[in-house]
Amino acid sequence: MERPSLEINLPDTHEEGKLYVVDSLNNLNKLNVCPDESQHSLDEEESTGGAQENMAGSNTRNHCLFFVTFILTLIVSLALVSYVLFLIIQTRNKMDQISSRLLSEKKNIEELKKINKIILKHLNQSGIKD
After folding, report:
1. Cβ-based neighbour number of residue 21 at 10 Å
2. Cα–Cα dist 72/84, whole Å
3. How far apart are CA 30 and CA 24, in angstroms?
4. Which of 1, 52, 62, 118 has the fewest beta carbons closer than 10 A?
């Protein structure tokens, strides 16, 4: 189907007038080319096209935000793990010190028990009783 071209000779008008006339011609062309139902679908496609561009920008921003959050979480986790390892090493060193002190005290207690036995034997032999 051939359509007659819309040729309109417009006098020189201001830019706003030209834009208004072009917009009016586009609207008229849409009405001639598209029936009412398809016009609604075209309007919906135009409105969702902009939303899709906004969604694409939003998705990129969300990915960047997720990536930055993920990196910060990893850094904080690494710092916490390092601190826990430091505490474990310090605790082990303190436990080793306490264990060595307990061993030395145990030796001292054993020596005191031996001395106590010797004193009790001496007292029993000398005849002094409790």
Report:
1. 13
2. 18
3. 10
4. 1
Max Cα distance, the chain (Å): 144
What kind and span of H or E run contains 27?
helix 15-33
Q: Residue 120 domain-assigned?
A: yes
Span 21-59, pLDDT tens digits: 667 777 777 766 555 555 555 555 555 554 555 666 678
In total, how many domains does the chain have?
Answer: 1
Please say whether the beta carbons of 28 and 8 come within 8 A: no
Instruction: Identify the CA nearest to 33 among candidates 57, 70, 4.
Output: 4
- Compute φ and ψ for 10, nearest 5 degrees: -100, 135
Does the predicted model carry a pTM greater than 0.85?
Answer: no
Residue 65 lies in a domain: yes
Domain that holds residue 116: 58-129
Q: Distance between the two ends of the chain, CA-based, in angstroms?
A: 134
